[in-house]
Design brief:
heterodimer; A: 285 residues; mainly alpha; 13 helices; globular; B: 282 residues; two-stranded antiparallel ribbon
Chain lengths: 285, 282
């Protein structure tokens, strides 16, 4: 296939269109899926509203009050919905392809294998979470900027950096996921590893300050520097919501590190993926 | 359907049939014991984030107690709900029934002298027994490490009895609720979204996500009218003594009523469903 360069964008758009056509042929199911995703987010808000009846902030002196935390929660939803829409169904499919030997067909295509593995299915229903996330983001930012004591002043740099760090976070999540999925080449089956993904990303759902007590420091360091899932939501949410109305220099250092971490994560996952392909022995007869 | 088994010559052979089914399912389950034990240990990971979250909430609130819970009490609560859930959660039951109805495997129970619900119950008992045998070690290990969170120590013997009773009833209640949901597939072939909604409500209203005592009064009155609390909250609350001892048995009686109601619902649905059902081909 020397000299031939496939148009990645066109291929991706075709994938997206096919998935949409597929989703729309089961319209009731699609709507039900959207409703159930949305009710999940509503219940989450309910839970945190209960929590904030008993406390003013998450963690003492951290500045994560109700509205700041809702910015954080919105950021979590936005990143999760991006991961679920574009990558989750595909990573699940990847293990299945390895197990069944159908990966052969992907290997034969004249296009990068990681690309063709990562994008063929777009779960459009999961985008309803994105919608909920953006709504909550705007609502809580409105609350923060119009409150009477020390209202938040939105900085144009923050507004520009927010989507950038959302993208970084999504890439980190994707890298963790594709790395875990690749291991099924060696393990054959990895149901436990999928649970593992949920358990790891579970750590990203709260402000990082809550881990900075006692032996939690070790957890904080592990999930910041080794598997940087703690940076995923924390950095963009902090840039936007500015708990305590400031960004400390330590936070800026972490923000710079997040860019490096994103790059390293992606390169690492690419390495693992290529390695996995080399160890792949087709399962078909 | 229920009359098929009673057509057997004498009682002893029926017991033997069920015993054989139990034995086979147990052997089937023990095949994946390594995966099981590892999976069980990992299930405690989300509790770690819960611990940090609640410690942060307590630190910021400046209170030593929120409703009936101290800082350590909340952790004890979450650990106990793990046990409740180990009894009441029924992974794959509902979707399994739906799949059998859809692809026609259900015919098996129509021609063999086995009752569908009874068969599923026995295999589920086997699944759970096997799970407890393997999970006992990781559970005991984690609970031993975390014994400091249980500030009141072991409850009295009578409360402990009520606790075990509530766990067993929680198992049965969970089974019959999900079985009824699965049997809906006689009318609607696709029950996935129904299961999702059930799991969602279950997660929130059973007390798996947070202790139900934290709900505002109007909401807790409503939640008390539902059967979900018996699947996670109630056993944990009995153990921790959140429920006054004189009310414990009343609550268990209400739970028993729910259980009987769902046994009847599942039975009626199965009978009606089979009358509706039509199987084609081999």
């Amino acid at each position: 296939m020397a000299g031939y360069r496939p148009s990645y964008l066109n291929v991706f758009l075709t994938f997206a269109r096919n998935s949409l056509v597929r989703d729309m042929s089961f319209r009731t199911n699609f709507i039900l899926q959207c409703i159930s995703t949305i009710s999940w987010t509503v219940m989450n808000i309910g839970f945190y509203l209960i929590v904030f009846q008993y406390t003013d902030s998450i963690g003492k002196g951290t500045g994560w009050g109700r509205d700041e935390f809702f910015v954080f929660l919105a950021t979590t939803w936005i990143i999760n919905s991006l991961v679920q829409t574009f990558f989750m169904p595909n990573a699940q499919q990847f293990s299945e392809l390895i197990r069944s030997g159908n990966l052969d067909f992907a290997l034969l295509k004249p296009i990068d294998t990681q690309f063709v593995i990562s994008f063929p299915r777009v779960d459009w229903a999961a985008l309803s979470n994105l919608f909920m996330g953006i709504t909550l983001l705007f609502y809580s930012l409105y609350q923060l900027t119009t409150r009477i004591d020390s209202p938040l002043v939105l900085d144009w740099r923050a507004i520009l950096m927010y989507p950038f760090y959302i993208a970084c976070g999504t890439v980190i999540m994707y890298s963790v996921m594709i790395t875990l999925a690749s291991t099924s080449v060696w393990l054959g089956r990895n149901q436990t590893l999928y649970n593992f993904w949920f358990y790891i990303t579970n750590f990203s759902r709260y402000p990082m300050e809550i881990y900075k007590v006692g032996w939690g420091i070790a957890l904080w360091a592990f999930f910041t520097f080794l598997i940087p899932v703690l940076l995923v939501v924390n950095i963009p949410a902090r840039i936007m919501a500015r708990p305590l109305n400031t960004m400390t220099s330590q936070m800026w250092q972490l923000a710079c590190f997040a860019i490096l971490a994103t790059l390293l994560c992606f390169l690492f996952s690419r390495r693992v993926f290529v390695r996995a392909l080399k160890s792949y022995r087709s399962a078909s007869s | 359907m229920a009359t098929v088994t009673s057509g057997q010559p004498y009682h002893g052979s029926r017991v033997k049939t069920w015993w054989t089914i139990l034995k086979i399912s147990l052997e089937e389950r023990f095949v994946y014991r390594g995966d099981f034990a590892l999976g069980t240990l990992m299930r405690f990971l989300p509790i770690i984030t819960q611990v940090f979250l609640w410690y942060a909430i307590f630190a910021a609130s400046g209170k030593s107690q929120i409703e009936a819970y101290t800082k350590k009490g909340v952790v004890a609560y979450f650990m106990l709900t793990m046990i409740s859930r180990a009894f009441s959660s029924m992974p794959g039951l509902c979707s399994g029934i739906a799949l059998q109805v859809r692809d026609g495997e259900i015919k098996k129970y129509l021609i063999q002298p086995i009752d569908l619900i009874g068969f599923l119950l026995i295999t589920r008992v086997a699944h759970k027994l096997c799970y407890y045998v393997i999970a006992l070690i990781p559970f005991a290990f984690v609970f031993f490490l975390c014994r400091g969170f249980f500030e009141n120590g072991w409850p009295q013997a009578s409360i402990l009895c009520a606790y075990f009773l509530s766990l067993v009833m929680g198992f049965l209640l969970g089974f019959f609720i999900e079985a009824s949901l699965g049997l809906v597939s006689f009318w609607f072939l696709e029950v996935t979204s129904l299961v999702f909604v059930y799991n969602l409500l279950n997660f929130f209203l059973s007390g798996h996500m947070f202790p139900l005592d934290l709900l505002p009064d109007w909401a807790s009155e409503f939640v008390n009218l539902l059967p979900f609390q018996y699947l996670a909250y109630y056993p944990a609350a009995i153990f921790l003594g959140t429920i006054p001892p004189e009310q414990v048995w009343l609550g268990l009686a209400v739970e028993a009523c729910w259980l009987i109601a769902f046994i009847i619902i599942a039975r009626v649905m199965l009978n009606r469903g089979i009358r509706r059902y039509s199987g084609f081909g081999g």
